[in-house]
Amino acid sequence: MKQELTIGTKHSIQITVTNKMFAQFEGELVHPVYSTATMVYHMEWVSRQIILKVLEETEEGMGAEVKVKHLAPVTEGTLLTLEATVVGLKKNFIITKVLIFSKDRVVGEGEVTQVILPKSKINTMID
After folding, report:
1. 103 phi and psi angles, rounded to 5 deg
2. In angstroms, rounded to a whole number, what is the distance separating the alpha carbons of residues 88 and 91?
3. C-alpha to C-alpha distance for 21 and 23, rounded to whole angstroms
4. Per-residue pLDDT tens for 18-34?
5. Cα–Cα distance list, 62 to 47, 95, 102, 105 (Å)
6. Which of 15, 24, 25, 23 lies closest to 45 in space, CA to CA?
7. Where are the domains of the chain?
8. pTM of the predicted protein model
9. Yes or no: domain 9-126 corresponds to CATH 3.40.50.2300
10. 11 phi, psi to nearest 5 deg
11. In three state form, how does the secondary structure of 30-51 look?
């Protein structure tokens, strides 16, 4: 890593819910609200942005675990803020707590664990 991450490092993003983010399976709409699957994607994305700042050219991050609680439905057009905070650092594992807000209401929360590995090791694992 270029620099050490510290507990408390934060990053946030904002997204607006679109109909492409609705709960659906195999193209079948289940509910016209922000899906849990999309929430997980955004949780990983905001967490990844924290490690992008510290990766060496020879390193890459991989998702290792996601824990999520989807607390409230969110409709199309809603602006969401996702905030990731580093809460754990164990060897090459980075754990972030993620909160998802709609205005002042928490609509989701969870943790994302990423592992930083040499790209060569990842390529070997894939092969």
Report:
1. 60, -120
2. 10
3. 7
4. 999 999 999 999 999 99
5. 11, 12, 28, 30
6. 15
7. 9-126
8. 0.94
9. no
10. -150, 145
11. EEEEECHHHHHHHHHHHHHHHH
